[in-house]
């Protein structure tokens, strides 16, 4: 069975006043993860196919072509887990 | 002047590509890259001389001991200390500061005493003192920083009193790159009978540092920020102060004798000579040898040349960054009073967005608080992006950085 962990290499809380979260996708799975996310989330803005500003449900986040995504204003880890579940599976 | 193009040939990692772009490493304040000479010295130690030090009479142990002691001597020469007795190898700057806090502070700081710390300190020069104050009940007072990031010397002088027992200040801010006038701070501290501990993590790798002219009591710095390996750092201490101090950690190596007294049913212990009194357990021998090689490498270039090169790059980068409309630079605008560190932000973007965008183009920069939250609060910043230079950085990299920065402005 496919899981979120199949796509995600690391999740890191950022350093700074805003407690953002960066999701780093596995190198060999990043293209697949990006494709899945772009299919499900709404693209608000795209810059040279390098950065995508996306919205999904009530959340806005940025996805980078290098396989990293930055999520803001999350309540907790389980909220992120649920978003990733919906986006990736 | 140093030749950065020739120097670059010594750094294998600089040949790497990240996201199909040549690596541009601008995160030197976090850690430096390592030249082939340092990597080879560590490899050579493990391939040819590996043994524990000061433990055995056999040939390998003698060789390892000699190399490890030579490493202390090289570091002593590098900062103009009196000898290896004043050079304690530790894990890094953080451990060095904790050593002073617990080996000196625990026994010498009492209720009503004051420890003076600057607001620009890295957390590693704040947290140990706050932690210790919870045990000993002394007060930690903070010296203010001016709006341009320079230290408020007037506030420092006003807050220094007979209650002040130790002044803890960085030589160079890891956020703004400001170089503090340590000589002046040491003079004022000593006039009040206080000691001075200097965090040299951002100065020793980048400037000529002569502890005799600075007249500091303690100087802490890390090997990995000055071309050496991680896990090795240095605490310099004036010999007469170190001799009076009790050890930090107990174990092998730091003792001369542990003798069981059958009458008292206890062990009586005598300490080893300096610096071993403060180096409990098996040391990071290969780390020390790697650091020695790093120091030799920097001495070969000349620290005046290192400083001049970084100053030129900083001046150039700050001047070019002013071409950008949405970029704000923090700290002093005068490159001559700072080291090669430039904190900045881009309007409307978090520092992490900036760092991730640059990463896309193979440009490595730091984002966040850089372990200096109080200074960010002083600047009114939620976080900042930071570029920091070293001997192998070149103007062309700054030009490329600017090209990408101008793209970021379009977001």
What is the element layout, followed by pairings?
The complex is a heterodimer of chains A (89) and B (411).
Chain A: E1 8-13, E2 21-25, H1 30-40, E3 42-47, E4 51-56, E5 59-64, E6 68-71, H2 77-88
Antiparallel strand pairs in A: 1-2, 2-6, 3-4, 4-5, 5-6
Chain B: H1 4-8, E1 17-18, E2 21-22, E3 24-25, H2 36-49, H3 59-78, E4 87-90, H4 93-108, E5 114-118, H5 127-136, E6 139-143, H6 153-159, E7 164-170, H7 182-191, E8 195-199, H8 211-214, E9 218-222, E10 233-237, H9 239-244, E11 255-261, E12 266-271, H10 285-301, H11 303-321, E13 327-329, E14 341-346, H12 351-360, E15 363-364, E16 366-368, H13 373-379, E17 384-388, H14 395-408
Parallel strand pairs in B: 3-15, 5-6, 5-7, 7-8, 8-9
Antiparallel strand pairs in B: 1-2, 4-10, 9-10, 11-12, 13-14, 14-17, 16-17
Helix pairs in contact in B: 2-10, 3-10, 4-5, 11-14
Question: What does this protein structure show overall?
Answer:
The complex is a heterodimer of chains A (89) and B (411). With 89 residues, chain A is an alpha+beta fold. Chain A has a single domain (4-88), classed as TATA-Binding Protein (2-Layer Sandwich). Chain A has 2 helices and 6 strands, in the order ββαββββα. Chain A has a 6-stranded antiparallel sheet. Chain A is globular. Chain B is an alpha/beta fold. Chain B folds into 2 domains: 4-26 and 302-408, Aspartate Aminotransferase, domain 1; 39-299, 3-Layer(aba) Sandwich (Aspartate Aminotransferase, domain 2). In chain B, 39% of the residues lie in helices and 18% in strands. Chain B has a 7-stranded mixed sheet, sandwiched between helices. In chain B, strand 11 (255-261) and strand 12 (266-271) form a beta hairpin. Chain B is globular, with a radius of gyration of 22 Å. The relative contact order of chain B is 0.17. Chain A binds chain B through residues 14-18, 20, 22, 47-48, 50-51, 62, 64-66, 68, 70, and chain B through 19, 350-353, 356-357, 359-360, 367-371, 376, 381-383, 407, 410-411.
């Amino acid at each position: 069975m496919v899981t979120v962990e199949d796509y995600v290499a690391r999740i890191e809380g950022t350093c700074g006043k805003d407690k953002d979260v960066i999701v780093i996708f596995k190198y060999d799975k990043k293209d697949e993860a990006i494709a899945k996310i772009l299919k499900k989330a709404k693209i608000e803005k795209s810059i040279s196919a390098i950065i995508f500003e996306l919205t999904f449900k009530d959340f806005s986040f940025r996805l980078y072509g290098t396989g990293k995504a930055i999520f803001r204003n999350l309540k907790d880890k389980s909220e992120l887990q649920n978003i990733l579940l919906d986006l990736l599976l | 002047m140093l030749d950065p193009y020739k120097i670059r040939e010594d750094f294998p990692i600089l040949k790497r590509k990240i996201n199909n772009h040549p690596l541009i490493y601008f995160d030197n304040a976090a850690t430096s890259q390592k030249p082939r000479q340092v990597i080879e010295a560590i490899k050579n130690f493990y391939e040819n001389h590996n043994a524990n030090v000061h433990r055995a009479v056999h040939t390998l142990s003698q060789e390892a001991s000699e190399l490890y002691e030579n490493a202390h001597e090289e570091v002593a020469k590098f900062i103009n200390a009196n000898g290896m007795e004043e050079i304690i190898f530790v894990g890094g700057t953080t451990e060095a500061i904790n050593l002073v806090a617990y080996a000196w502070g625990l026994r010498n700081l009492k209720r009503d005493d004051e420890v003076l710390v600057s607001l620009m300190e890295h957390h590693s020069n704040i947290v140990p003192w706050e932690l210790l104050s919870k045990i000993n009940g002394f007060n930690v007072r903070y010296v203010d920083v001016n709006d341009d990031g320079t230290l408020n010397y007037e506030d420092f002088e006003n807050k220094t009193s007979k209650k002040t027992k130790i002044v803890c200040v960085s030589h160079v801010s890891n956020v703004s790159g400001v170089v503090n006038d340590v000589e002046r701070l040491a003079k004022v501290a000593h006039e009040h009978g206080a000691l001075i501990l200097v965090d040299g993590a951002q100065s020793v790798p980048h400037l000529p540092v002569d502890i005799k002219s600075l007249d500091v009591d303690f100087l802490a710095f890390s090997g990995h920020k000055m071309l050496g390996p991680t896990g090795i750092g240095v605490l310099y201490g004036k010999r007469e102060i170190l001799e009076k101090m009790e050890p930090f950690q107990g174990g092998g190596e730091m003792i001369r004798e542990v003798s069981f007294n059958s009458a008292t049913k206890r062990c009586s212990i005598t300490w080893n000579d300096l610096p071993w009194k403060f180096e409990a357990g098996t040391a990071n021998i290969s780390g020390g040898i790697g650091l020695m090689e790093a120091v030799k490498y920097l001495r070969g270039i000349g620290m005046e040349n290192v400083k001049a090169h970084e100053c030129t790059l900083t001046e150039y980068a700050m001047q070019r960054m002013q071409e950008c409309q949405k970029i704000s630079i923090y700290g002093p605008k005068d490159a001559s009073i700072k080291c090669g560190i430039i904190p900045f932000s881009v309007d409307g973007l978090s520092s992490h967005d900036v760092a991730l965008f640059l990463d896309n183009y193979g440009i490595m920069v730091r984002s966040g608080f850089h372990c200096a939250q109080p200074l960010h609060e002083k600047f009114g910043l939620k976080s900042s992006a930071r570029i920091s230079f070293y001997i192998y950085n070149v103007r062309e990299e700054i030009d490329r950085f600017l090209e990408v920065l101008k793209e970021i402005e379009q977001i």
